[in-house]
Specification:
This protein is of the alpha+beta class and about 180 residues long. It has two domains: about 90 residues, no CATH class; about 70 residues, no CATH class. The chain has five helices and four strands. The protein has a four-stranded antiparallel sheet with strand order 2-3-1-4. α3 runs antiparallel to α4. It starts with a strand and ends in a 5-residue tail after the last strand.
């Protein structure tokens, strides 16, 4: 079993359920909603910031460095031309192309980092087998308590979710494709 999937009707109901589940010692919780729910990230205990901005910054700096040193090598080392008395290492002239490569590499780092951090593409996940899960992107708010949680007991956890006013609780089998 992958876990139990519970449906809640309101954002406040989900926040209360997550708060109670965390107070009871559950830590492997996932919430799926069609819109952001204020304060839910902190309730889930996920206060760590994303590493994506750092990846974009590093990609941008790498792009600027590649652009600058590529122009420097071409103009000062490989094929030096003295045009109008300007120096071979003309950093103001190299700035435009370096900026363009910084934007390009930063954008590529953002896309690659997004896919890496979200573990996409994910062609199979146990929740995809549940018909209720497909409605989480439209109008349902779902909480999944994973069976990997040390506190997880199928019967006790199901009763707790029902006590927390879940409108429906379903088992999610851990089925490989």
């Amino acid at each position: 079993m992958y876990g139990l999937l519970a449906e809640f009707g309101t954002p406040q109901g989900v926040a209360n359920a997550v708060r109670r589940l965390r107070a009871d010692g559950y830590s492997a919780l996932e919430v799926y909603a069609p819109f952001p729910i204020e304060g839910l990230r902190a309730e889930l205990g996920r206060t760590r910031r994303s590493g994506l901005p750092l990846m974009v910054l590093m990609g941008g700096l790498a792009g600027a460095a590649v652009g600058y040193f590529m122009q420097y090598y071409l103009n000062a080392v490989d094929y030096p031309l003295n045009v109008g008395g300007r120096p071979l290492n003309s950093w103001p002239a190299f700035g435009v192309f370096s900026f363009q490569l910084a934007v390009l590499f930063g954008g590529l780092a953002a896309v690659i980092g997004l896919f890496a951090l979200t573990r996409l593409p994910m062609p199979h996940h146990p929740l995809f087998q549940n018909t209720q899960f497909s409605l989480a992107s439209r109008d349902r708010i779902l909480v999944c308590v994973r069976a990997a949680d040390p506190q997880f007991d199928p019967i006790v956890t199901r009763q707790l979710l029902i006590q927390l006013h879940a409108s429906e609780v379903a088992e999610v089998p851990d089925v490989e494709p």
